[in-house]
Amino acid sequence: METEKLKFIVEKSYSGLNKQKYKALLPYLKKTQKLYQESWDEINKEFFETGEEITGFHWKHKIYFCVLSPFHWGISNWGGNKIIRTWRENPYSMRKITAHELLISHIFTIFERDFKTENLTDKQKWALAEISAWAITGLEKKMLKFWPWISEKEKYPLDHNYPELYRLQKKLKPIYENKKSFKEFLQKAIKIIKRGK
């Protein structure tokens, strides 16, 4: 069976730079692309298999693309097969956030396939996808082996750019840790987020 694959790419249309600045940056984007790809290839097959095993859901796409950006730290395409990541990281330290963005996309496809009748708003889907991705990348031993150097506070971070998620994130952590399955976690999390308390 063919394994999903993440390919790092460079696309001018995503750069937001004028022609001259892009031309100056391009050789470094290409070098970073090569280094990121080599690092990711070390974990690619196992990451996608582990993600599927943890969530209990198949990945929607066979190939995912990660566009290197001069500006954006990390952006997920909600259910699509293209994410964006900064080119300014170490090829190893970039792994966890890259995985986080891939998982957000994966979780959105789970919402669309299996939780459509829940009628979640985009904001609710986004909140649950973000929190779920932090839980999967930071609370699962099978995932932590892909980035064993991260600190304890990076595992399930509460110092990110989304302070509006802190309360819900704290509430969902014990539910995630005690789940029987990822689907059960989502079912409980959806009830909580819909109550809005």
Average of the residue pLDDT scores: 93
* Rg from Cα: 17 Å
Lateral strand order in the biggest sheet: 1-2-4-3
Shape: globular
Roughly how much helix do the residues carry, as a percent range?
40-55%
Tell me the count of domains.
Answer: 1
Strand content: 5-15%
DSSP helical segment count: 8
Low-confidence runs of at least 5 consecutive residues: none
Largest sheet: 4 strands, mixed
Describe the structure.
The protein is of the alpha/beta class and 197 residues long. It has one domain (5-195). 54% of the residues lie in helices and 10% in strands. The chain is built from eight helices and four strands, in the order E-H-H-E-E-E-H-H-H-H-H-H. It has helices at 19-41, 44-55, 95-114, 122-139, 141-144, 152-155, 166-177, 182-195, and strands spanning 5-9, 63-69, 74-75, 82-86. A four-stranded mixed sheet has the order 1-2-4-3. Helix 7 (166-177) runs antiparallel to helix 8 (182-195). The longest helix is centred in the N-terminal third of the chain and has 23 residues, at 19-41. It is globular and about 50 Å long. The protein starts with a strand and ends with a helix. The mean pLDDT is 93.
Keywords:
197 residues; alpha/beta; 54% helix; 10% strand; single chain; 4-stranded mixed β-sheet; 8 helices
